[in-house]
Amino acid sequence: xxxxxxxxxxxxxxxxxxxxLKELIDENSLTPGSVPLKAAKYLLIELAExxxxxxxxxLAKEKGIAVSGYIDTIVKDHEHRIVSKELFEKLKPFFDFRxxxxxxxxxxDDALLIRNxxxxxxxxxxxxxxxxxxxxxx
Length: 138
What we know:
Number of domains: 1
Largest sheet: none
CATH class: Mainly Alpha
Number of helices: 6
Radius of gyration: 15 Å
CATH architecture: Up-down Bundle
CATH superfamily: bsu32300-like
Distance between the termini: 8 Å
Strand content: under 5%
Structural class: mainly alpha
Helix content: over 70%
Number of strands: 0
């Protein structure tokens, strides 16, 4: 059975990090090589971890399914329809990108990252909304 308290804690963390990321965007302080962009990269890592932990928890407790990493988590999310197909298609590249941030951060194109952050900034809030609507009332 899903631990609602744990789920709410993870969703709160996602909401907080999403809000902080939006503040950096709104301040127009994300420029290549800047300290705010470095902060945004860390926020993205925290967002990916909290989202992955959320999906892992639901898969384990609701479906009895184990995962073996970030990419496996989002793949199994799709197989078991934890979030909508549309949101999955937006999140899959984000989960792939998370690995680049962790393992090869020096190869990240800062200008492309800034565009992707701006374009996808509402995806994190949508993730929270979908999880709350589908899973937090069980």
